[in-house]
Specification:
It is a single chain. The chain is an alpha/beta fold and 438 residues long. Helices cover 42% and strands 16% of the residues. The protein has helices at 21-29, 45-57, 70-75, 78-91, 103-108, 112-122, 144-162, 185-196, 230-233, 250-260, 273-287, 294-313, 324-334, 365-373, 386-391, 416-432, and strands spanning 6-7, 35-41, 64-67, 96-101, 131-136, 171-179, 201-204, 239-245, 264-267, 317-321, 341-346, 361-362, 378-381, 396-398. This is Nitrogenase iron-molybdenum cofactor biosynthesis protein NifN. One of its GO terms (molecular function) is nitrogenase activity. Pathway: Cofactor biosynthesis; Fe-Mo cofactor biosynthesis.
Length: 438
């Protein structure tokens, strides 16, 4: 049972850093090849989600919108939903189509899922060898992390339902990798390479490493350009093991375990010496292989990096505002360096924070500012916190989502021995400079 986070008595957020569940849902779908999310909500809802994601990743984002107008409040929006499905299928022919209900959909009371299921039943031939599903991701609850995880859960659930009649023999050397919303495309690529070095096959859902990592493509398409293909996703049902990265992804791994008896393991993010060691130990035992020698060298490099930077981190007070899974991954890394305190803020409740020594505050960047005023040597948050950190003369480094003021944020690697060393060097350089990264 999750510990209750302390909440402020403020009636509203003064300086919010929360990102909506819809953003997380759309982000997850970018890691599925030839997919298209269709948001059902207010006019301009899709454009705002697309803008934030595009600014962070500096890549085109596939998305469509079914706008709710005044007449929908009286007559319902069923025909508009059906018309959009017909339009998307005839014009773009996606492999995966996701109907995402927003806050307005819930408030209006539109039966988005019922309409989608009814349309699917009457047009089964249209969706042959395709996947269509729907879910609600209202803004008034959860955050990007929960919206991302719910979307992945819905995808796996739909794949399991569609493949129920197919008997698949388990493939001994195949692993399912379920990265959380806090894992960058660079992190996913690093972990894919590590797993492959043990002669293991890996299926990643969602696979942002091949869709949002900065490739040059010719022509325009309304569909996601990279990610895991649908036919490959179906092979997840025959994998021998599942590795989830982040507590928020555990329900997805548990779904595969309960339905198909696929065992699973949960890591916070494979950041830090201890968890990286545990990850490599799992791979060695699972594959019955020692892996490549370069990772032994990378471990030695990380140990040297920890020795070099320990004096910088010792006794330091950290103030951070991130998604819960990201907070835990960051804390487990910094706790190995002798920091004095790690005080944090989250925007939505999560069981992930049980792993933190001090309960995070459920609030906004204004709350983090008050925490930092009591003493902080480093401010860690997304780009929305940069100005506040500057005003309080606190060294600042951008992490999380969104990051607007850094090139290559999507390619940043914090996973594994190499990624952990890069993260520690970045943080230590910021602390050691006695100034701000701006």
């Amino acid at each position: 049972m999750a510990r209750p986070e302390r909440s402020t008595a403020k009636p509203l957020s003064i300086n919010p850093f929360q990102t909506s569940q819809a953003i997380g849902g759309v982000l997850a779908l970018q890691g599925i090849f030839r997919s298209i999310p269709v948001l059902h909500g207010a006019q301009g809802c899709a454009e705002s989600v697309q803008t934030v994601l595009s600014r962070h990743f500096r890549e085109p984002i596939s998305i469509q919108n079914i706008a709710i107008h005044e007449q929908n409040l009286i007559f319902g929006g069923g025909e508009g939903i059906r018309e959009m499905i017909r339009h998307v299928m005839s014009r773009h022919n996606p492999d995966v189509i996701a109907l995402v209900g927003t806050s307005l959909t819930k408030v209006v009371g539109e039966d988005l899922l019922g309409i989608a299921d009814d349309y699917f039943r009457h047009n089964k031939e249209m969706f042959k060898d395709k996947l269509m599903f729907g879910l609600y991701l209202p803004d008034y609850e959860g955050s990007m992390e929960s919206g991302y995880a719910k979307t992945v859960f819905s995808v796996i659930q739909k794949i399991m339902q569609s493949g129920r009649k197919t008997v698949r023999k388990k493939k001994r050397n195949r692993i399912n990798l379920l990265p959380g919303a806090h894992m960058t495309p660079g992190d996913v690529m690093e972990l894919k390479e590590i797993i492959a070095s043990f002669d293991l096959e890996v299926i990643v859902l969602p696979d942002l490493s091949s869709s949002l990592t900065g490739h040059l493509m010719t022509g325009h398409t309304a569909l996601s350009r990279g990610g895991v293909p649908l036919d490959y996703m179906r092979e997840m049902l025959a994998s021998a093991y599942t590795v989830a990265l982040g507590k928020s992804m555990e329900p997805c791994a548990r779904l595969l375990h309960e339905g198909l008896q696929i065992p699973y393991l949960v890591f916070n993010g494979v950041t830090g010496l201890r968890e990286s060691d545990e990850f490599f130990l799992f791979l060695r035992q699972f594959s019955q292989s020692e892996g490549e020698n370069k990772y032994r060298w990378q471990r030695q490099f990380l140990l040297d990096c920890m020795l070099d930077t320990r004096s910088v981190f010792r006794g330091r007070r950290i103030a951070a505002a991130l998604e819960p899974d990201h907070l835990v991954a960051l804390y487990q890394c910094l706790s190995e360096l002798g920091i004095r305190s790690f005080r944090s803020v989250i925007s939505a409740p999560s069981p992930s924070v049980d792993a933190l020594p001090e309960v995070p505050l459920l609030g906004d960047l204004d709350d983090l500012e008050r925490i930092a005023a009591a003493g902080a040597d480093l401010w860690i948050s997304n780009s929305y916190g940069q100005q506040t950190a500057r005003n309080n003369n606190i060294p600042y480094i951008p992490l999380g989502f969104p990051v607007f003021n850094r090139f290559g944020a999507a390619a940043r690697t914090t996973a594994g021995y190499r990624g952990t060393a890069e993260l520690l060097n970045d943080l230590a350089n910021t602390l050691n400079s006695k100034g701000r990264i701006s």
